[in-house]
Recover the amino acids of this structure.
């Protein structure tokens, strides 16, 4: 067959690895990754049944794990506590206990790794006996302003212990502004707020709730987390959070919401983060364990997609593996 008469042959830009490198539009780098880690009060580590490959660390072993991550070039961690069930209460008082698990962990981590950025989750679900991100009244309603009054204490408690970034993941209205005011009033003007602004009511969080034993005791999270059908509303949430003082905003989950991520990153002037959540992790883990997909290829592809869609920072349980692969 004779040559087609084509001026443009896009395949020329893919003809070798060297040429493909020159044409690559986005590059995933270790410095963009945030490593979410789980800590508990116990002396012994526990493997997390609902998240094979992940661990609830004792504080001591968490320091080793962080040291390894740090050596691989990971600059930031997000801390999640598995709280003893007898410390959980309807008013979640443990969430702002200065000698609680999270403040203790922050101090130990910052003491050993002062330059590592420590990000803490601000929400009540690990501490609340109802398993909701906010306080619940007798009718089952999740209370907004009453919850915010506690979240500001929690954020202040984390900042006092040395957190670099507090990350409200609760989706209450007005919490970013209230937290900003409380931090500033206490001279923590340098502590940043990474807001989980577009956090969807998602089935992909199930494995994480197993890790913290934080499954809601009744109802679901749909009166505060967003409807998966909405994208415009995500922009509204993000704009409100920026007006209230958010330094960075987040989309969560990441993979199923790449359109939302792109829309936000094209429309706002603050950095946008994305969270590849437990269910996304588990889908890749289970399919690759069954031999159905190639783990490394799919992990890198999923994270590249999230980066390409507009995330400058990505929370992923694969942070350490990716850092190793990128070496
Ligand atoms: C709780 C919180 C959740 C996650 C991060 N912070 C769960 C939820 O909202 O129910 C999910 C993370 C994951 O699934 O990996 N405020």
């Amino acid at each position: 067959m004779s040559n087609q008469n084509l001026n443009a042959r896009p395949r020329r830009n893919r003809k070798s690895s060297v040429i493909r490198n020159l044409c690559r539009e986005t590059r995933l780098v270790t410095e963009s990754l945030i490593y979410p880690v789980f800590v508990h009060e116990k002396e012994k580590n526990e493997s997390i049944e609902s998240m094979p490959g992940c661990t609830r660390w004792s504080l001591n072993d968490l320091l080793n794990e962080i040291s390894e991550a740090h050596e691989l070039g990971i600059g930031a961690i997000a801390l999640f506590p598995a709280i003893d069930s007898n410390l959980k209460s309807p008013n979640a008082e443990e969430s702002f206990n200065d000698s609680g698990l999270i403040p203790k962990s922050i101090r130990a981590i910052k003491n050993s790794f002062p330059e590592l950025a420590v990000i803490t989750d601000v929400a009540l679900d690990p501490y609340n006996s109802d398993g909701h991100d906010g306080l619940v009244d007798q009718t089952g309603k999740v209370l907004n302003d009453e919850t915010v009054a506690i979240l500001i204490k929690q954020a202040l408690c984390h900042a006092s212990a040395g957190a670099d970034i507090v990350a409200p993941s609760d989706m209450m209205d007005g919490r970013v502004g209230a937290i900003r005011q409380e931090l500033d009033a206490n001279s923590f003007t340098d502590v940043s707020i990474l807001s989980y602004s577009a956090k969807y009511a998602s089935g992909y969080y199930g494995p994480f709730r197993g890790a913290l034993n934080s499954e809601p005791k009744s109802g679901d999270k749909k009166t505060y987390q967003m409807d998966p059908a909405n994208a415009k509303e995500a922009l509204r949430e993000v704009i409100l959070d920026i007006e209230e003082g958010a330094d960075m905003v987040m989309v969560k989950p990441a993979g199923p919401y790449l359109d939302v991520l792109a829309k936000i990153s094209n429309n706002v002037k603050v950095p946008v983060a994305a969270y590849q959540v437990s269910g996304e992790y588990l889908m890749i883990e289970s399919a690759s364990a069954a031999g159905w997909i190639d783990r490394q290829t799919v992990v890198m592809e999923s994270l590249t997609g999230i980066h390409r869609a507009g995330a400058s920072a990505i929370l992923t349980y694969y942070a350490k593996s990716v850092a190793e692969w990128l070496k």
User: Anything to note?
Assistant: The chain has a mean pLDDT of 97. The pocket of PBG is lined by residues 121, 123, 125, 133, 169-170, 205, 208-209, 221, 277-278 (CB under 6 Å).
